[in-house]
Sequence to fold (235 residues):
Amino acid sequence: MTIVNKEGKEVPFILNKAQNYVAENGTGKDFVLKARQEGVSAFELAVFTGDFLLSENSTSVVVADNADNAQGLLERVKWYISSFERNNNTKVPLKYNSKYELHNAANNAKYIIGTAQNVEVGRSRTIKNAHLSEALFYPHFRKLLASILQAVVPGGKVMIESTANGFGDGKEYWDETVLGNTGFNPIFLPASFLYDKEFLDTKKKELGRLYDQEYPESAEIAFLTSGEGYFDQEA
Fold:
């Protein structure tokens, strides 16, 4: 499987430090709080694509925070499939290929990309894999999560993944997860996992007070910074 890197070149998909940490420390039911663009969604989509290509009757559901990001995630999945086809000199028999759903006719596997605006996404499905991308920006995070969890089969894989958002109930759910009260495994990926000091110093100058939200070194700082607008209005 290959990816297109930030220079626009097709390269083999080799895990970066953040992705490798998730691979080694994930439990199959994880809440990943992270800095920007550390590749967590790219990693999880690749894992789900492997199931879509090789596992019979599997259903993978990915939920994006908005339609634009859903389209971007779907395009990445399609790229993974096409790279698999090229590298293995084969053709995946897609029974249908709609805007947000893929069906592999060879093994009856399904891959569905939804948006957080539909809180019932996945409810009528039997889901093996679920990934909630930028979940703390969902308008109804807990309601959608409950819908997904009811549809995931025993032993299925669920990942909540997001940058910090001080609004809504996501911070409460993260805090509950850290305390061991949700059944999810908390994983925090600081910016320094992936970015060097020179890059981070440049971003700090560019972003000012927003820097710690986008490139945090601790969950506490990330949530504090992302909620500053709210607290400033309340003051």
